[in-house]
Amino acid sequence: MLKIVGYFIASWKEDIDYQLPNIKDLAFVFGGGMGGIWEDGFEGAWMDTFIKRVGNTLQVRYKEAVLWSTGSANRDLSRFPSTCLIIDVSDIKKVL
């Protein structure tokens, strides 16, 4: 059985050092993003996220990328938080 053993929600531009539980076999699922919606329709953007495990710490670092559409470079984006689930995968062979 796979178990969710932790989670966190990060703002759109926040570096995080998340203390992981003392479990050897962990996986994480990371999702979220940002985009902009204006009177002329939807315009997309992306955000680069760098995630690294250092011992029992999960380091999340953000680097904002540019808008796909140059016509909206000075407009504000609707930003959404990112969510990370921490999953214990010790028993992954039983699941598969």
CATH class: Mainly Beta
Structural class: mainly beta
Instruction: Please tell me how large the radius of gyration is.
Output: 17 Å
CATH topology: Immunoglobulin-like
Order of helices and strands: EEEEEEEEEH
Largest sheet, strands/sense/barrel = 3 strands, antiparallel
How is the largest sheet built, in terms of strand order? 1-9-3
> Which descriptor suits the 3D outline?
elongated
Tally the helices: what do you get? 1
| Helical percentage | under 10%
Walk me through the structure.
The protein has one helix at residues 92-95; strands at residues 3-10, 16-19, 26-31, 34-38, 41-44, 47-54, 57-64, 78-79, 82-88. The chain has a single domain (3-95), classed as Immunoglobulin-like (Sandwich), CATH 2.60.40. The chain is 4% helix and 54% strand. The protein has 96 residues and is mainly beta. The chain has 1 helix and 9 strands; from the N terminus they run βββββββββα.
